[in-house]
Amino acid sequence: MDLQSVLPLWKEVEYYRQYQQQLREYLGNEKANEVLEEAVYLISIGTNDFLNNYYTRPGRSSQFSVEDYQNFLIQIGKDFVTNLYSLGARKISLGGLPPMGCLPLERTTNILFGRQCIEEYNQVAKEFNWKLTDLAGKLNRELNGLQLVFSNPYEILLEMIQKPSYFGKISIRKSAVT
After folding, report:
1. Which domain holds residue 20?
2. What pTM was computed for the model?
3. Contact 92, 147 (CB under 8 A)
């Protein structure tokens, strides 16, 4: 597998099943089930999907509107969380999108607009995060015993980018170099 590749979620579930089997062989069923139920599962969805697939892959944006693509990803996220739940996961943190338009690569390639943040991408991130918030609430109501929390990195990362001095940095450009 290429280092630049990202595993699809279905493959991650397959690997997780294999891990569970190995854990049960090592600890026994009872102890393994206890470990699996007490574990905290961290999930991040969306950044690569938008930046590496939707916005850069020819035809993807003609196949889906932004909203349709968001809904497509939300359904994939829902299925993934439901699969983890069926495998014993009960404590899950679902990470949202950062201000994608302010990520270094996006700003660097935005030469025409003075390497500023791409606000269109940031708006998509905010909308997607709202949908993830709704998904977390819905799944918490539907799946008995699930403790799904939505962790939103958007605002704190945007503040770090816009006000680096609050975080001990003079400039975000210098921070990236030093």
Report:
1. 9-38
2. 0.84
3. yes
